Amino acid sequence: MKQNKREFAALVRATLTFLQPDWNETTSVPSLPLPIKPEPKKKEPPPPWKLSPPPTSEAPISRFSKFFQPQHETTSIYLFALDLSVKQKDFLENVAQAISEHIGPTKLVAAPLQHLLEDPKIRLLIAPFSLLNKKFPEVQSHQYLLMGAQFLLPMEPIDSYLTDLDLKRELWNQLKLFPAMLQSS
Description:
Layout: H1 5-19, E1 77-80, H2 86-102, E2 106-109, H3 113-118, E3 124-128, H4 129-135, E4 145-147, E5 150-155, H5 158-163, H6 165-176, H7 178-184
Parallel strand pairs: 1-2, 1-3, 3-5
Antiparallel strand pairs: 4-5
């Protein structure tokens, strides 16, 4: 049972009159003007969606457009991470995060090497030197090897990076060269 304010005020006055019938007109409850709130305005529905055709190739090209093209979209970098200790995995996760922030999207993978070498999405595979050396005897640590459209970068054993800062620096310097290597290929 919902009542508006005027009905409620009238009900209160009637109740007071009933409870105290000996009141005269001068002692009755004064009627106060009730503030009237305006009804809220109904919001108009949003206009219907308008579809526009995709931009055509004849659109003018800005001289600055080369600076605003996403460069990390086509780069796929994978770090080989199989049978690792907690410290080694943490190290590779930190390396992957740094590569993702500065070079391109990076992912840790634990798949057989042969599957990774055949994957066309992978542009750079970073794997242990000992593993890559079995398949490619000409490979050298921290030196890029181009296999078709895929680059391989052999790493020293991960425990070496945990203790030797120079090795970390050397790995990072090689990783920073990857965008230039990618453009030259």
